[in-house]
Amino acid sequence: MPTDALLPALDPMAIPGPPWLFHALWLVTFAIHVVGVNVVLGASILGTMASLDSDRTFGRGVAGFFAEVNTWAISLTITFGIAPLLFLQVLHGRLFYSATVILAPAWLGLLLFLMAAYYLTYGAKYRLRAGKGAAVHLGLSALLFLAVAAIQVVVHLLSVQPGRWEGVLAAPWTALSDRSFVPRFLHFVLAGVTLAGILLAWVSVRRVPDDGARAAASARAAFGLKIALLATLLQLVDGLWLTISVPREVLLGLMRGGAATMLPLTLGIAAGFGLLVFLARVRDPIADRTSVRRSLELFGLAMILMLVTRHQLRDLYIAAAGADASPATTGQWGVLAVFLGSFVLCTFLAIVAVVRSAKDRPGPGDATA
Amino acid sequence: MGGGILIALVAILHVVVSHFAVGGGLVMAVLETAAVKRNDAPLRDLVKRSSMILLLLSTVFGAISGVGIWFTIGVVHPAATSSLIHTFVWAWATEWTFFLLEVVTALAWVATWGKVSPRTHLLLIWLYAFAAFMSLVVIQGILGFMLTPGSYPRTFSFWDGFLNPTYLPGILFRTGVCILLAAAWMAFAALREPDRDARARLSRILGAAGSVGVGLAGVGWVVWERALPDSVQRLFLGEKPLLAALATGRSHTLRMFAVAAVLALLVLVLPRLQSWPVAILALLAGAGILAGYERVREGVRKPFVIAEQMFSNGVLVSEIDRLNEKGILSKAAWATKGPGGRALPLGEAVFRAQCASCHTRDGYLGIKKIASAMDAEFAEMFLTAMRDDGANWKARAEGKDVKPDYAFMPPFVGTDEELKALALWLASLNGSQVAEVTDAH
């Protein structure tokens, strides 16, 4: 893979810390962001499917759940996306900026898609609360979120392959012709659908429902688990497709990386198979709530391991392109301490806020806000 | 449309909404606390009616437009964005932690009306107000640095850059505008109060908040102007300002101050005069003050994007000599390719690399019009003089008392070949020379 002549020079300014620290923070914050991405993508797709269900009570109930979840999840996903965006720019600014400049209309259009999808989700939430249908709102928001995901995948793939920049500049639509674009995009979408399905099941049965609500909870959980099982099966096929679609030198780099690269990949695949087993063996979600919870935990494990592999793949792509020059480094330890301190403080306060909001329920006759 | 206009569009929308988000937190926290203490139902309803707008604007529009600024400056000014990131990533990361708390508490606060005790609800809004204000406290350090880096260019100490001369005045000004904008937004919710007496009382309270806001902002503006270096003050202050357009912009902003002050005091003294037209005018005046401030702040920074370090075209003062030797295209190979991937003439490539962050060809600050009186010889002479000016900029950055000849333009950097190619290309725009067709490669 030749280094392209359009590759900008490395920023002469030193980065304010060791690269490993930025990699670690990037990975951690990106993992949290991706949980949100999966929820938003999956919830918008499953919400649309549910809102088209012939059983209106069931369908609107499930769609309402996903619309409520998404109004929170979208805010948090965007917020958690800011940190990895910062760390990405520190480490690979020249690659990232170049890709976004080449695909500027799509990249900036992404913001409009995101805003429209967000407000459509709010519209769906209030329509469903009022007992009205929201298939159009949810369907449009799902399409917009899918477009946002596709743009992110395209920009990512382009950024790590400077050799393709000149060609894409000449014909922008060829950005979609990357062999690994479709399987990589599907990897995100299927993960989102899986998580949303398991989330619906887990929320429905995490506490034993009353007799009156038992049938509805069981139906919701069964719907979620069935979708998650199907999506996980497809994910295994897609994972294989993604593996063989990666450029040869990148794949070889992954295989030759020893335990550092093969362990996360192998364990991630194993976690995927484990997830499949747990999802398949649930017959009665209410009676077998442990398996539902285990499914959620296994999904989380598989996702984290796959993110590690994704991160390593990025570095291999960049190394293959000869664009892995090391930046100069310097230390800003005092400011780093301020960041870590504020992170701990704000996380603690956010947890306090959520816990107090969830647990504080005044008794009858007591004042409410 | 030039990149500057694109940034301005996104940034203006974002700063107005984000200042409302900060001010909304402060004002609503105070008002909800007062409502709980006095068991004041209309005041509580005013805050509740305003809360959904706060949520939709801050966590939806504010969040996305904030990311939008990142996206936009990264596309328009990648080199400057990279430099700022390398210097201030921990500050931005710190701001992000407060923004995280801001979003969580905003969502929880709006979702728990009528569900939790007043004590818990007050805790949520005060946490929100704290987080929102702290995000302002952090970001002001970076914004102030871009205009007045203080002793940073000599010490390269983060704190010297962050706690720069306009840091505190900027916080004072912005806090005032935040409160003013929040009071102006909430006036619409107050007008929906059905009881006439209660409506007047709420309007009076918001008039008081608006008066406090405009007062703080006014003091902040004056202190901010005085904190600017003399060389910057001369650009837009005094009897003969060097940048007349900015001086005019400042005058307009001061008129906005007057309008906002009069309206806030009017509603405070005669609250029954509050109406939709008055509220709209007050909101526009508040937004106008902020837009005017941002315009002046951006304008007086010319020709830098980071004062004394990086010019608005992404060229560092420290790399002037190297780029004169190796050429601007050694830093910006991307500029050699135009739409459709076609190879551009060398002169046009140099224009894209060095001038296009501010100038368009035919539109905003169109170079065709600016160069209309130039033939190739004159353009070459002019560009040579601009290149020589690089030595003055370097001397000034080293602290010497030197005035560049072209105070509002970055120096030209590049080889003789690049300079001549640009001169020919500029002349060719108006047909005075045959177009130069050398391939940029």
Structure overview:
The complex is a heterodimer of chains A (369) and B (441). Chain A folds into two domains: 16-160, no CATH class; 179-328. The relative contact order of chain A is 0.12. The longest helix of chain A is centred in the N-terminal third of the chain and has 47 residues, at 56-102. Chain A is 78% helix and 0% strand. By secondary structure, chain A is mainly alpha-helical. Chain A is globular and about 65 Å long. Chain A has eleven helices and no strands. With 441 residues, chain B is mostly helical. Chain B has two domains: 3-311, Up-down Bundle (Formate dehydrogenase/DMSO reductase fold), CATH 1.20.1630; 317-429, no CATH class. Chain B is 72% helix and 1% strand. A two-stranded antiparallel ribbon of chain B has the order 1-2. In chain B, strand 1 and strand 2 (310-311) form a beta hairpin. In chain B, helix 10 (244-269) packs antiparallel against helix 11 and helix 13 packs across helix 16. The longest helix of chain B is centred in the first third of the chain and has 36 residues, at 3-38. Chain B is elongated and about 75 Å long. The relative contact order of chain B is 0.09. At the A-B interface, helix 2, helix 3, helix 5 and helix 11 of A face helix 2, helix 3 and helix 4 of B.
Note the gap between the termini of chain B: 27 Å
The second-level CATH architecture of the largest domain in chain B is Up-down Bundle
Unreliable segments of chain B (pLDDT under 50, ≥5 consecutive)? 433-441
Number of domains of chain B: 2
Rg of chain B (CA only): 25 Å
Q: Name the average pLDDT of chain A.
A: 93
The largest sheet of chain A is: none
Helix proportion of chain B? over 70%
Oligomer category: heterodimer
Q: How many strand units of chain A?
A: 0
C-alpha geometry of chain A: globular
Largest interface: A-B, 75 and 72 residues
User: How many E strands of chain B?
Assistant: 2
- Fraction of residues of chain A in helices? over 70%
Overall radius of gyration of chain A: 22 Å
- Specify the number of helices of chain A: 11
Number of helices of chain B: 16
Structural class of chain B: mainly alpha
Number of domains of chain A: 2
The global form of chain B is elongated
pLDDT under 50 segments of chain A (min length 5)?
A: none
